[in-house]
Specification:
Length: 94
């Protein structure tokens, strides 16, 4: 069975959020942290993994990613706070 992840990254000062989807969370977060690719997360220094969830179907993961991107900032913060109230970088020890 395949596993897919939706994830939220924040900038160190928590001012900017980035939402993505991947089938390899550790690899993808390492790419963000190393700023391997040009784009939004590199431009705004979104390197702290503050939230993620697993899905078994890529279609469901992509649907959830699209939904989250439409959410108000407050709703996204509430989601993060429900699982990670300190906004700790969940990938800091990877």
């Amino acid at each position: 069975m395949n596993t897919y992840f939706i994830y939220i990254l924040s900038s160190p000062n928590k001012s900017v959020l980035y939402i993505g989807v991947t089938n390899d969370l550790q690899r993808r977060i390492a790419e963000h942290k190393s700023k391997m690719f040009e784009g939004f997360s590199k431009k705004y220094n979104c390197t702290n993994l503050v939230y993620f969830e697993k899905h078994n179907q890529i279609e469901k993961a992509i649907l959830k990613e699209k939904q989250l991107k439409k959410w108000k900032r407050e709703w996204k913060e509430n989601l993060i706070n429900s699982e990670n109230s300190d906004w700790t970088d969940l990938a800091k020890d990877w």
